[in-house]
Structure formats: structure tokens, C-alpha cells
Amino acid sequence: MTAWLARSDAAVVVCVRESGGLCGFAEVGTRPYADGCRTTPVAFLEGWHVDPDCRGAGVGRALVEAVEAWARGRVDAASTSSPPTRSSRTRRVSGPTSALAS
């Protein structure tokens, strides 16, 4: 995680439970290309996870929307998909089990 956050072209988005702890995360970075993209570089959703007890409640949607917001205006977007550090490249998102923090 430290190496990922050290990159200037990457971000981690997390969803925080109201009771504390995380219930989901998404990692986004840039790549020089991705199949189907006409521009370079491209934003790439490298990985994401939502805890089983929070699935179907909008957490994944909130994470992906936050990734899209990060990528918008930076690069073209692609995806591999069919501990909150207070960094400019780390974001918290609101979800059914979390409080919004920026």
C-alpha cells in the first residue's frame, strides 16, 4: 500500500463503517494503454473489494463513482472489473455504512 500511495498517478478510495474500520476499497492507477482505449495514458481500476455484509447496499457503486471522479479530466478510463491514509491520493466515500469524509 505504501508503494502504491507513493505513486503520483495512483489513488486508493476507501469506505468506512460508521462503527469504525473499512468495509471496502478501490485502487486506481494509470497505465500507458488499455485494450479499447484510444488515448494514453488511461485510468485503470486495478482492484476493488466490498465486504460481503455490505454488498448490495451501494458501497461498490460509491467506490467506482469516486474512482471515476478521480480519473475524470486526467485520462481515458478502463477497468479490470465485468487504512484511510490522509493523502491527496486517498479518498473516503460515503456508503450505507459509512460517514462522509474528505
Please, could you describe this protein's structure?
The protein has 102 residues and is an alpha/beta fold. It has a single domain, classed as Aminopeptidase, CATH 3.40.630. The protein is built from two helices and five strands, in the order αβββαββ. The chain has helices at residues 2-6, 59-71, and strands spanning 10-16, 22-31, 42-50, 76-79, 90-93. A five-stranded mixed β-sheet has the order 4-3-2-1-5. The longest helix has 13 residues, at 59-71. Mean pLDDT is 77; it is low at 81-90 and 94-102.
What attributes does this structure have?
disordered C terminus; five-stranded mixed beta sheet; alpha/beta; Aminopeptidase; 102 residues; 5 strands; 2 helices
Return the string of H and E elements. HEEEHEE
Calculate the terminal CA-CA distance, rounded to whole Å. 19 Å
The named CATH superfamily: Gcn5-related N-acetyltransferase (GNAT)
Mean pLDDT, all residues:
77
Measured as a percent range, the helix fraction is 10-25%
Number of domains: 1
CATH uppermost class: Alpha Beta
Shape: globular
**Major beta sheet, strand line-up:** 4-3-2-1-5
Number of strands: 5
Main sheet characteristics? 5 strands, mixed
> Strand fraction band?
25-35%
CATH second-level architecture = 3-Layer(aba) Sandwich
- Report Rg: 13 Å
Query: Regions with pLDDT < 50 over 5+ consecutive residues?
Result: 81-90, 94-102
Count the DSSP helices. Answer: 2
CATH topology type: Aminopeptidase
Structural class: alpha/beta
